[in-house]
C-alpha cells in the first residue's frame, strides 16, 4: 500500500497529531503538553533512535506543535469526506515547509527519496516530510485510509493499514471499549 518511507512519515504524522493536539483520548479529556514538556513530547513522537528531548529546541517544538494542529485538520477533513478541503490544507502545509524531494542514502541501504524543507532544521524537515506523505495519501486512492477514532470521547487519528480498509479506532483499547459497551447494552436489553 504505502512504501516504507511514506508509511513511516504517516506514522510520525499520527504520533505528532495525537501527542501534540488537545482533545479526547480513550474516553478522557486530553491536554497536549505545553512549555517545558513540549520538547519531550516531540522527541517521543519521532521515530526511536531519532532525537532526545534535550536536542529539541523550544522553537522547533512549537513549530511542530503548530504543524500537528494543521495536520489534525487534514485528518478531520478526510474523515468527514471533505477531500477538497484536505487537499487545500495539505497544499498549505507543503508550501509553508517548502517540501522538496531529494535522493538520500542511509548507510547500508539503497538510495531513497526523502522530502526536505526550506531548511534542514528538525521542525521544517519533519513538517515537510509529513506534509508530503499526507499529499501522497490524498493524491491517490488511499485518502480514505486516514481516519479519526470512532469511539465515544476519543478524537485521536490513525492511518488504516489493514488489508480490507475496515479500521475505525485509534487503538485496540478504544475498539475494546466500544465492544464492551455494546455487549453491556445487549445484556440490559435481553
Structure in words:
- The chain is an alpha+beta fold and 190 residues long.
- It has a single domain, classed as Orthogonal Bundle (Jann2411-like fold).
- Helices cover 51% and strands 13% of the residues.
- The chain has six helices and six strands.
- It has helices at residues 4-20, 38-45, 58-79, 83-97, 122-138, 172-189; strands at residues 23-25, 28-30, 100-105, 111-116, 146-148, 157-159.
- Strands 1-2 form a two-stranded antiparallel ribbon. A two-stranded antiparallel ribbon has the order 3-4. A two-stranded antiparallel ribbon has the order 5-6.
- α3 packs antiparallel against α4, α3 runs parallel beside α5 (122-138) and α4 runs antiparallel to α5.
- The longest helix is centred in the middle third of the chain and has 22 residues, at 58-79.
- It is globular, with a radius of gyration of 17 Å.
- The chain starts with a helix and ends with a helix.
- The mean pLDDT is 91.
Give a brief rundown of this model:
The protein is an alpha+beta fold.
Question: What coarse outline follows from CA principal-axis ratios?
Answer: globular
The CATH class name reads: Mainly Alpha
Specify the CATH architecture: Orthogonal Bundle
For the termini, the CA-CA separation is 43 Å
Counting DSSP H or I runs of 4 or more residues, the number of helices is: 6
Q: How do the strands line up in the largest sheet?
A: 1-2
Instruction: List segments where confidence is low: pLDDT < 50 over at least 5 consecutive residues.
Output: none
Number of distinct beta strands: 6
Q: CATH superfamily name? A: Jann2411-like domain
Q: Summarize the amount of helix as a percent range.
A: 40-55%
CATH-derived topology: Jann2411-like fold
Q: H/E element string?
A: HEEHHHEEHEEH
Content-based structural category: alpha+beta
Radius of gyration: 17 Å
**Mean pLDDT score, rounded?**
91
**Strand fraction band?**
5-15%
How many structural units, i.e. domains? 1
Largest beta sheet, briefly? Answer: 2 strands, antiparallel
